[in-house]
Design a protein that fits this description.
Elements: E1 5-12, H1 25-35, E2 39-43, H2 61-65, E3 68-69, E4 86-89, E5 98-104, E6 110-117, E7 120-126, H3 131-147, E8 154-159, E9 176-178, E10 194-198, E11 202-209, H4 213-218, E12 224-230
Length: about 250
């Protein structure tokens, strides 16, 4: 793996219960390992009620997937994620990695995770169920990225909870928004909830939906992935030179 080329992925685990159960995290581990990602944003890694204990067993992550969780404080003492989200990465990327929690506005409690690696910031999101909240959340994320001074190469990925191609994503202009294909519901995908948005300075060399047999059983979402290459810094000159919003049709 070259550090200027990465495979990114996003996967909503649905608390490791598939569409309707049973609880079987070994299926999700297999899907994560099969993806071969360098960095993967995970949603719904904790159970919802009480102290929100982990649904994805952290003690098994590295052995099962070859990846390690990013270091940050979770929602609770027994939580793997923050607002149900975590980021896994290859162990060799841990050196120099920094994670920041971004509280988000909206009707429901939501938050994002910003992972900064040398040359790139990757923001993992699980946006709200109401479009007005999603718009406010995306606006806040972009504002925060600019304040951090790290918006020259920026990626947003996760469960956007947005089914329209041309509504609710206005705050991402002028990023390139990629919806690799239908990812929900996993057994018969129809809607493109899961997306990846990239700024100028990042070339997307491939992308897709991981539609394997076990992935259709392991969660209500199929994971998505994108292979990216970091262009020289002269090509990443700030928000004013980013590409316009676009969506790719189903594959």
């Amino acid at each position: 793996m070259r550090h200027d080329s990465l495979r990114l992925a996003s996967y909503n685990l649905h608390k490791c219960r598939g569409m309707t159960g049973p609880y079987a995290p070994e299926r999700n581990f297999k899907v994560i390992a099969d993806l071969g990602a360098d960095v993967i944003a995970l949603q719904e890694v904790d159970f919802r009620m009480g102290t929100r204990p982990e649904a994805l067993p952290r003690a098994q992550i590295q052995e099962a997937t070859g990846m390690v969780p990013a270091a940050f404080y979770g929602t609770g003492e027994n939580s793997l994620g923050w607002h149900g989200q975590t980021i896994l990465m290859r162990p060799e990327l841990m050196q120099g990695a920094q994670v920041r929690r971004l509280p988000l506005p909206g009707i429901e409690p939501r938050g994002a995770l910003a992972l900064h690696l040398p040359g790139i910031t990757i923001v993992a999101v699980h946006l709200g169920l109401v479009r007005s909240s999603r718009r406010a959340q995306l606006k806040r994320i972009i504002e925060q990225a600019r304040r951090m001074g790290r918006d020259d190469r920026l990626v947003l990925t996760g469960d956007f909870n947005e089914w329209h191609d041309n509504r609710g994503l206005e705050a991402l202009e002028p990023m390139q928004v990629i919806a690799p294909g239908p990812s929900w519901p996993a057994p018969f995908p129809r809607l493109r909830y899961d997306r990846i948005a990239v700024s100028h300075g990042i070339e997307v060399t491939g992308h897709g939906v991981w539609n394997s047999q076990i992935a259709r059983l392991a969660s209500d979402h199929l994971p998505i992935w994108a292979d990216i290459r970091l262009q020289p810094r002269s090509a990443a000159s700030g928000a004013g030179n980013l590409r316009p919003v676009s969506d790719n049709g189903p594959e």
